[in-house]
Amino acid sequence: MTSAPAPPRPGLHATARIRANRTDGTTVLPVLAGDGPFDLRRTRAHGDQARVCIVGTMSAPLGGDRLRIEAIAEPGAHLRLTTAAATIALRGPTTAHSTYDVHLTAAEHASLHWLPQPLISAARSNLRQSCTIDLAPTARLHFREETVLGRAGEPPGRLTTRLTVHRDGRPLLDQHTRYGPGAPGWDGPAIAAGHRALGQILIVRPELDPPHARLFGDDPATGQAVLTPLTGPALLITALAPDTLRLRHLLDLAQQVAEPLELLGTDRTTAPVAS
């Protein structure tokens, strides 16, 4: 007797794929494919850097969704990725968790900038987010992420994040954090410390000479950031703040001390998210 097929798993399954190549002294995009909520827009290049904006075409991730972004900068290519708006994790029609996986790869002498708008963990959502980054020894990375725990006047949902970075096949950074209901101590002094906005910047550059560790912000109640040199050469900036405006101020302040902004190609014109 043949068993009945398993019912389809609830939720949306979608993948966006981006590949940047170096051709005739500039960066081209032979692969630019998105489905589901991902609409990939090629924006005006900056020098030999190709730029792509990821536009969300529907509410996602919802409970049960499985979303993935894959981006590769081939040897000598320069790629910058942004999102058009904040990503809001919502509960949706099912209590099942959703996943949002990002996989970034930068080959020899390539550079990759990942500069999305914030992720907002809305009440009763359940999101598992991961970002895996593979870097060649001569690759450059500028990675920036911001997270908001709950919309205005509401608690956050369940949020699990993991950032894993390898350089030349060796671990550079591996961090795993849980927030919201069921996560022990997430709102205590060791993690969020009562703040709603969290962010970090990871910079990896072969010629980088990271400064010494430094703390920014005198009053923990109004948010603080810390700059930490990593073996790589790399540096990590982490920040906590009551809202996104203060968070961005702290991240920008620490970043300016770490490296001149014009050398990083960072866009400071992104609009703030209402807190």
UniProtKB/TrEMBL annotation:
GO MF assignments: nickel cation binding
Carries keyword Membrane? no
The subcellular localization recorded is:
Cytoplasm
Q: What is its main location?
A: cytoplasm
Q: Name one GO cellular component term.
A: cytoplasm
Looking up Pfam families in the UniProt record yields:
UreD
InterPro entries referenced in this protein's UniProt entry, alphabetically = UreD (IPR002669)
Q: Which UniProt keywords apply?
A: Chaperone, Cytoplasm, Nickel insertion
Q: What does this protein do?
A: Required for maturation of urease via the functional incorporation of the urease nickel metallocenter.
Q: Which family does the UniProt entry place this protein in? A: Belongs to the UreD family.
Complexes and interactors: UreD, UreF and UreG form a complex that acts as a GTP-hydrolysis-dependent molecular chaperone, activating the urease apoprotein by helping to assemble the nickel containing metallocenter of UreC. The UreE protein probably delivers the nickel.
**Name used for this protein in its record:** Urease accessory protein UreD
- Native source organism of the sequence: Nonomuraea mesophila
- Provide the taxonomic classification: Bacteria, Bacillati, Actinomycetota, Actinomycetes, Streptosporangiales
Q: What gene does the UniProt entry assign to this protein?
A: ureD
